[in-house]
Design brief:
The chain is an alpha+beta fold. Among the domains are: 116 residues, Cytochrome c-like domain (Cytochrome Bc1 Complex, Chain D, domain 2, Orthogonal Bundle), CATH 1.10.760.10; 141 residues, Methylamine Dehydrogenase, Chain H. 15% of the residues lie in helices and 27% in strands. It is built from 15 helices and 39 strands. The strands form 11 sheets. A 5-stranded mixed β-sheet has the order 1-33-34-35-36, with no helix packed on it. The chain has a 4-stranded antiparallel β-sheet with strand order 2-39-38-37, with no helix packed on it. A 4-stranded antiparallel β-sheet has the order 3-4-5-6, with no helix packed on it. Strand 7 and strand 8 form a beta hairpin. It starts with 14 loop residues before the first helix and ends in a 5-residue tail after the last helix.
Length: 741
Amino acid sequence: MAQPSNRWPAAVSVAASVALVIAVGWQFMAGGERGAEPEKTVAAGEQLPGGNVPATEQATSRPLADVDQQRIINADSEPGNWMQHGRTFDEQRFSPLDQINDKNVSKLALAWSLDTDTTRGLEASPIVVDGVIYTTLTWGVTIAVDARTGKELWRFDPEVPGEWGRYGCCDVVNRGVAVWKGRVYVASFDGHLFALDAKDGSIVWKVNTVPGAPYTSTGAPRIVNGKVIIGNGGAEYGVRGYITAYDAETGAEVWRFYTVPGDPSKPVENPELEKAIPTWKGGEWWKIGGGGTAWDSMVFDPKLNTLYVGTGNGSPWTRAIRSPGGGDNLYLSSIIALDPDTGRMKWYYQETPGDNWDYTSTQPIILADLAIDGKKRQVLMHAPKNGFFYVLDRETGELLSAKPYAVTTWASHVDMKTGRPVENPALAYDKVGQWVQPSANGAHNWHPMAFNPKTGLVYIPAQDLALYYALTKEWKEKHHYTAEKNWWNLGLDYADLIDAIKALGDIPPSHGFLKAWDPVAGEVKWQVEYPAPLNGGVLTTAGNLVFQGTADGYLYAYKADTGERVWEQNIQTGIVAPPVTYMVDGEQYIAVLAGWGGVNITSGDARTSAAAKYGNDGRLLVFKIGGSGELPKLALRDQSIPAWPPLTADEATVRKGEVSFQQHCAFCHGTMAVSPGITPDLRRMNENTRQHFQDIVRGGMLKDNGMASFADLISEEEAEAIFSYVQKRAIEDRARMAPVR
């Protein structure tokens, strides 16, 4: 039951309806924290008071967002800008700036902050060009900000229908923009790609990159050889993955590469699929999904003229259903090297053949030149979900190294002769459910890692989590599988998952880490442990520093060589986005978006998350040495559970609601009905919300807020059972816990 905050119904018929929506919305949509406020919207081309042309353009002859390929190639000659997603084409997320360093970082303080008017996850890497910040918020809303002062210059809202939030596995997030020759390019959550004028945010052109729901788009576009490259999301809903290139000037489609085969009775879309088809055996994957969505990682080598793309998991997750005859299921969970001009494949390397655990390879890729066995090699480095750190020759795809960087129980090692992982047969879950590590959240998720060429280390936002995998009874007992239309397509048994968690007495413990990994030696040099997983992306600099934000609301700086903590700031807002750094008027700044979310809406830990403690109002925070700004002291959020009437539903009804909640609701409202604070905790529903539960869940009463109708999936009887389960959980937990003061 995904829902954004900050979106009110466009119109209601009578005043009483307005009052009711507001009363319900405060609780159901904002978790009891506050009523949603309308977003500050600036129409495309509308002039802000005082003009919206930043001082940079007024003072120089350079046009806004004047970025081209050669300028990015030469990025180190102007380190004060952050012109590309990972700063440079190799996406090392290393800055040569060293004005802020391990000797003076203790004096780092807030320069300015900007409220984003959001309460959901903020994941973007801000792009900074000539004194202007371009970044995205939720849904693909895009803003331009004066990098000196924090003044918002313009705002573009793609006006994604709120009910589209239902199709996001992992929040209504967006990871940023690309800038190119005076334009800002962004993909909205519903799959539209926009080219905006950098001066005012007006639309230059717009194309629809997807066939419709349940496809989504959350990744940052990349621009290569004058082409805008974008993928898609939605594998958990049964979609098929592809990457598309559009002409940056006109928006015309140039090429499309499908990552998995479609209906075998139809012509294949690209010749590489001829090789892939024999690796899918015995099933009808094209009817129930396929997957392989390229929803995040892309990196470009201009010297080799090669685009590297990471592909996603299978759909459904379980290969026993997707491909019961076996096979590697190309090109799931792979790195694919493409010719960016034609879209033809140069080579591929599959990291998790026949993926069975949602072990995507969409995690960020880094390019570097390393000395391996005494020889300088052009390498690609990757830490995907599956727990192994890969080093490949980026020209040939040759595997050079694959060592575990986290706990991996699903496989013992990667065979260097075959390049294949050696799976642990004892953890196959086709007959009996199993706890497996890493979980579907991965040993490392989308949160960007960074490479510092001075230390030779890669800094990974890593984690140790387990998940209970059990094949759905529908397949085990009847050898039949019905993927619910436009809804979760995992092939797992939710009842078994619930019972496995209950048998443990609690959700299994999890751990978050910042790991400094030596890619040549294949080992951890130092690490920091955090109280929770799913922490923020990483920045490293020539000042011998590594910056990272955390789920519990801190921003930290460490010495890059030793891991010593040298600075911290209590933000009181969880951070998943990676920091960036830039320089304006001779001063270096550190910038980061604060706003916890993404996959944390279902997997986050409410016991440690800042969102549960303080709320999740989003902000763009910018720091400098000697900054004079002050962060507000946030009040603790009321986490008490209100009184509920006595439970009258019988045990069978509650059990039905428990399983249905996990299947339909937990992905936004938390496992076992415990929300980590980003989306509403239904145990805390007020009386108005309880009375209109059916109207919300099945009637779509709050669809414009993102809480779409689920009438196609949930009957009236089932909704009542879900309500009874939430009621039971609320009564239990109210009896166990005292209100937080």
